[in-house]
Amino acid sequence: MKKILVSTALLAGVLSYAGGFRVSLQGVKQLAMAHTSAHAEDASVAFFNPAGMSFIPSKLSIVAGGFGASNKVTFQNLNTLQSTSTDNPMGTPLYAAVAYRPIENLSVGFSFSTPFGSTIEWPSDWEGRELVQKLELKSFYFQPMVSVKLAPWVSFGASYIYAKGKVDWDKAVTQFGGELNIKDEKASGSGYGFGFYFRPDPKLDVSIAYRSPIDMKAKKGTATFQFPSAAIYPLLGLDPSTGQDKFTATLPLVEEYTIGLTYKVTPKWLISADFNYHGWERYSKLTLDFANAPVGNQPDPTVLVAPKNFRNSKTFRLGTQYAFTDMIFGRLGAYYDESPYTDDHFIPETPSFNTYVITGGVGFKLKQFGVDLAGGYALPQSRDVRNAAIGFNGQAKAQAFYFGLGLSYNPF
């Protein structure tokens, strides 16, 4: 039983670090229009499709922004009717980008973003404490990129992605009256992105982009056990003075395909739509190799392999913008985001729901400067949890909202 409790918890914590869900908060203007991508007014297009830099009106464009993201998850055990809710702190995703066109048909740029990460905090004594009490995730993407205009109506762009990340996760080991913290601050990986951006007509923009999977390599992860009795540590091959063990793992982040369209119905009114496809089936299994702890399920007892039944998922987005004047813009949008797993694979470490999101915002343009405000309200669909593998059954509900402030500067 000891081996099952420890193994399940470690897998859940590391999986969430790999990004059990995608956080769509990489542009304030984009969020207001359902986070659609075919917008090349400034450098915020760089994250979505590097090819879009070729169609930015100014030679130099700089953008930066941040979000507040609040969410609450409630789980109810349908046998006891006991209900438990999270007390999550506010998440603060950030982004920044710069694009510069040194010569007529060549643009270069750089994008910084935080596309994966959140914090979830359950009560320390709740019924799922052996799975998770608190989990903090952070990820950072650094993307240098280039775009070449192949013709007046089409461009090609590519980027290199360097990713850094952190996980800090607490859970209870109730069988021994102890706790476990798993932590890694130096996981990293690399990937790439590329895309084509088309403007066959002044009224129509088409964006086609691909972001590769990334294998995040954790080489110096630390698992720290705390037990009331020193006699327990030798059972796990641990030094009682530290209670620590090391682990290594390769953690896959998923690929993403995007097709986006923007059509200018009138000079003042445009409509945008996106389709995203996420390759979550990469999570067929997860392997961890511990230095000493015999918590594995392979011939080598320090190696732990677990199947993960994630599935590919899709997102559908629709947004619009209307220019009330040359300086004031109103925006609305809505999108539907599929969960990457079914009810019988629900996990409280990275709770995910089929979700409808309503978005809106305003933008102000003051000569070379732009200020954008956006908000979003999520309507996650409740789930009947039936995860027999971890003995987790009941009903899960959630609510979430987002708001953001973005700044842009196009000097020339």
Automatic annotation (TrEMBL):
InterPro entries on file: OMPP1/FadL/TodX
Family to which this protein belongs: Belongs to the OmpP1/FadL family.
Membrane topology per record: Multi-pass membrane protein
Source species of the chain: Chryseobacterium herbae
SUPFAM superfamilies reported for this sequence: Porins (SSF56935)
UniProt keyword list: Cell outer membrane, Membrane, Signal, Transmembrane, Transmembrane beta strand
Protein name: Outer membrane protein transport protein
Subcellular location: Cell outer membrane
Highest rank taxon of the organism: Bacteria
